[in-house]
Amino acid sequence: MHARDINNAVSGQGGRDAANPKFVLGAVVLVAMLIGGNFTALKYALDHTGPLLLAAMRTVLGGAFLVSLAVLRGERFPRDTAVLRRIFVVSLSITTLSSALLVFGISRVPAGFASLMSSTMPLFTACLSVFLLRTTISRFGAIGLVVGFSGTAVLASPALGGDARLLGAVALLFSALAWAFGTVFMKWKDFSAVTPIMLVGVQLLMSAVVLLPLALIVEGAGSTDWSLGLFVPLAYAAIPANAVTFTLMATVVRRATPTQAASTAYMIPLFGVFFGWLIRDEVLGGAELVGGALIIAGVSIVVTAAAPSRQTVRS
Hints:
- It is a single chain.
- By secondary structure, this protein is mainly α.
- The chain has helices at 3-11, 16-19, 21-45, 51-72, 81-106, 111-118, 121-132, 139-156, 166-188, 196-218, 228-255, 258-262, 264-280, 286-304.
- The model is unreliable at 1-18 and 306-315 (pLDDT under 50).
- The longest helix has 28 residues, at 228-255.
- It is built from 14 helices and no strands.
- The protein is globular and about 45 Å long.
- It is 76% helix and 0% strand.
């Protein structure tokens, strides 16, 4: 992305620049790369603490970082009750339910399988968009969805032979559904009163208020190893892979169609496998290479497709 596009993404401005397919494609690749590394980071962090407490600490650090950044930029904390209610819905769906279920699921299934389950998010997004936004998907866009999902299936297929726990798989499936609903809701309702930075910062703090007491009650902190082995992956999972990615996604959702925004999930397994190879010395096989190529092709088709849509935005 060009410096001007990055600045527009951070400020929540940009108009036609942010709607440019090249900007959307660059944003979804960056988000997918950061989240792809998150699977490995969370695996390391889970060796030192429980899933609920880890999810809670991510929201505390990420929310504090973004709200502080927004205040330093001269932004004000939203006070309008209607806006806060909408932010809470997004918080509950994406950074509370989806994030908690994601960490819980990753703790119980192989990373490749977790990537596959997370990639079902665009399918849920497309279905919810039809009902909530009255959106139609062009034939070209539908082809991109099929190609992308096929690539994801090929990429993660080697992991399907593992002993994945049913509970973890179900948790990841509902995590994808909650993430999809939050994505569509941000397009359905009006969030123009707050910038993406403040929006995500507030929703993360709202999630922290829910997750932190729950984690302390259910898991406690007695067995947590407060060492660099926890803090380093936690810092990555909280800020680059959480605060930064959701801020970028909030920007993309405002400027692109929900299906385009959801196409990020197609590339997550690709980067998940890449970071597994880079950090854990995992070997890339033929399935990973073929699946990665199909995913990139599918994302490119979906993002650049001029899908005709008609939607009703309600206040």
